[in-house]
């Protein structure tokens, strides 16, 4: 019982830390494999969440592709992705935070082969890691790698650059 209480105290932080809501956005490349082809369309994500402490939070994300990419006779684009994630991190200083993400993503890609298009929707366990650099007390810049989906012949991962505003 003591170990459980200690773990809860460590995860949900000191009493002096009030929780914080945050909103942000990201832009980056999706590394997408489908139909045996590897493409890198550009996408954007909107994110919002709540940090219970400096160490743990929950967040939701919604994203879409803003460009398509092709290889050989296959053109692929991300139609949308939605996810919910646990965000666990360690502040390395007052301005730098290293974090990991674990959650679940659902997404849809459009695949066009020789003029014939189809969409494929998949859901999968997702994970990633990144770090945030505080520009001010309320504004952070993030760099992050995520593995969103690796299922059903579709593999979607990517590197993003983002901005987060803490309320």
TrEMBL record:
<dbReference type="InterPro" id="IPR027385">
    <property type="entry name" value="Beta-barrel_OMP"/>
</dbReference>
<keyword id="KW-0732">Signal</keyword>
<dbReference type="Pfam" id="PF13505">
    <property type="entry name" value="OMP_b-brl"/>
</dbReference>
<feature type="domain" description="Outer membrane protein beta-barrel">
    <location>
        <begin position="17"/>
        <end position="167"/>
    </location>
</feature>
<feature type="signal peptide">
    <location>
        <begin position="1"/>
        <end position="18"/>
    </location>
</feature>
<protein>
    <submittedName>
        <fullName>Opacity protein</fullName>
    </submittedName>
</protein>
<dbReference type="InterPro" id="IPR011250">
    <property type="entry name" value="OMP/PagP_B-barrel"/>
</dbReference>
